[in-house]
Design a protein that fits this description.
By secondary structure, the protein is mainly alpha-helical. It has one domain (20-153): Winged helix-like DNA-binding domain superfamily/Winged helix DNA-binding domain (Arc Repressor Mutant, subunit A), CATH 1.10.10.10. Helix content is 57%, strand content 9%. The chain has a two-stranded antiparallel ribbon with strand order 1-2. Strand 1 (93-98) and strand 2 form a beta hairpin. Helix 2 crosses helix 4 and helix 2 (49-60) crosses helix 5. The radius of gyration is 19 Å and the shape is elongated.
Length: 160
């Protein structure tokens, strides 16, 4: 069945926002649903999606400073300090002096953080499979392509 074949039940008022026909609105709603899905998947590990994203970013490049991570992810530097404080408190990451520039710090992912990343990635993979169940792979490839294009065209702004 094609999505365009789905019709509201006759005699009932549509249960949709007047904004429903706007693509941006739909992307926001899908993003909200995906965020709830990620929150539920990561909750048993005691971590939120934002924390997981920061931890994964740090693990992907051990040379990043907090400022680098802030710019890369579009997170306000003051908010990022709190996220990294949380990760340190949980033993998932630790601030270290940059051996090449002692005035700077890098944030290193601990072995516990690496373990959490592996478990979290598996949980997110399963959650995404469930979330996108019923959408064929060709359509998912288009979604990935279009959303990647939009993200690259409109890089994240720092959220305050």
């Amino acid at each position: 069945m094609e999505l365009s074949e789905v019709e509201p039940r006759t005699g009932q008022r549509p249960q949709r926002s007047p904004m429903y026909e706007r693509t941006g609105y739909r992307l926001i709603k899908v993003g909200e649903l995906a965020m709830v899905t990620a929150e539920r998947a990561l909750a048993p590990l005691g971590v939120k999606p934002r924390h997981f994203n920061v931890l994964a970013t740090l693990a992907a490049d051990a040379t990043l400073s907090q400022q680098d991570v802030s710019h890369l992810l579009g997170i306000d530097p003051n908010v990022l300090v709190g996220v990294i404080d949380d990760l340190e408190r949980e033993g998932l990451a630790e601030r270290r002096r940059n051996p090449k520039d002692r005035r700077r710090h890098v944030v290193a992912v601990t072995p516990a953080g690496q373990q959490l990343l592996a478990e979290g990635a598996a949980r997110l993979d399963a959650a995404e499979r469930d979330f996108f169940a019923g959408v064929d792979e060709a359509d998912l490839a288009v979604v990935r392509q279009v959303t990647a294009h939009l993200i690259e065209t409109h890089p994240p702004q720092v959220k305050r």
